[in-house]
Amino acid sequence: MRVRGVAVGIAMVMLNGCQSASVGEMWASARPANSGEKAVIIEGMRQFLRDPYSVRDVEISQVVTSKAVGGNVRQVCVRGNAKNAYGGYTGKQTYLVYIGDNGQITHADQGPSMSVVCSRLSFIPFPEAVNRLQRL
Q: Is 132 left (phi over 0), alpha (psi -120 to 50) or beta?
């Protein structure tokens, strides 16, 4: 029985090492968003926001790439302030946006994974979003 416990412990350490390398690679891949990624995000905001004309104070994070089933996924955080259904500003909201290998947004998230990823990335102003969304 003791041998099985030791074997399980060794396996857990080995798996943890694999995960750390993958996560380390993800953070090492951090880079500024390119124009194509920004354009896809702006289009997503145009479709997602109730009032895209109202968007302001938008910021974008660095992009990190992680491995997913079927390929790589790029993750980028976007935060900004826009009006809700009642016409009032919501305050800055942050979303973790996932961009697949095909260059399209697969989904956006405000859950726990958003907090983990977005808290580790630096943000810069994203004036292109405000300019393009207000020109609809």
A: alpha
